[in-house]
Design brief:
Blueprint (H helix, E strand, L loop, with lengths): L1 E6 L6 H12 L2 E4 H10 L3 H11 L6 H14 L5 E5 L5 H13 L6 E6 L2 H9 L1 E3 L6 E3 L28 H24 L3 E5 L4 H12 L3
Parallel strand pairs: 1-3, 1-4, 2-3, 4-7
Antiparallel strand pairs: 5-6
Bound molecules: zinc ion (ZN).
């Protein structure tokens, strides 16, 4: 069973690549955010404990996340592998995760890092405009994704709108926070010889080709 961690800054296309991987190789996508949301909705001890922690504004402790991950791993033992998304976020969690895998006689296959240039990521997010009627997404900062008439949907002929949080300031903070938090993790996995860096500034198909060549060597 292949065990892959996918790391990516905002706008690197992580969701798309993860979908492509699951489709092609039959991997299971594991998002710790989804696991927590699911667990919280359950009417059991864990669910109640999580609801309480949320209401009191406390951070969910790592032990809970590890427990949920361990339970999830048990249910997917007969699959070809999984992609872990949104976890680990720091070296502490990475070490805990290694221990969890060791205790199950498993090991991490690879950590794939989708790197993206700041300026391109900025354009992908800040230039994003969409049609309020059909939902089609355009980008007024990336030439091949511009509508034929500036600011107007090609299909509906109505004005395109922008999300208010898609601005440069918000993006800069998100991106820099991600890079600061992730750098130690990148170094950690590099030293273990598990890190594979993929340049995600090219097209979706080209990014996936790079990822395929990594996965097929594992
Ligand atoms: Zn439209």
């Amino acid at each position: 069973m292949k065990s892959i961690i996918l790391l990516a800054p905002p706008a690197a296309g992580k969701g798309t690549q993860s979908d492509l991987l699951c489709k092609k190789y039959g991997f299971v996508h594991i998002s710790t955010g989804d696991l927590l949301r699911e667990a919280m909705q359950k009417d059991d001890e864990m669910g109640h404990m999580l609801q309480e922690q949320m209401q009191s504004g406390k951070l969910i402790d790592d032990g809970v996340v590890f427990q949920l991950l361990e339970n999830k791993l048990k249910t997917i033992q007969d699959t070809s592998g999984y992609i872990l998304d949104g976890f680990p976020r720091n070296v502490n969690q990475a070490e805990g995760y290694n221990q969890l895998l060791q205790s199950k006689n498993q090991e991490l296959s690879a950590v794939i890092y989708l790197s993206v240039d700041y300026d391109l990521a900025l354009k992908r997010i800040v230039g994003r405009i969409s049609c309020p009627k059909c939902g089609h997404v355009y980008n007024d900062m990336i030439e091949e994704n511009q509508p034929s008439v500036k600011g107007i949907c090609n299909d509906c002929g109505i004005e395109l709108t922008k999300r208010s949080d898609d601005n440069e300031e918000t993006f800069k903070v998100r991106f820099e926070t991600y890079i600061d938090q992730t750098e130690p993790l990148i170094t950690y996995y590099k030293e273990k010889g598990l890190l594979y860096e993929v340049d995600s500034s090219v097209s979706t198909a080209e990014v996936f080709k790079q990822i395929e060549s990594i996965v097929e060597r594992l």
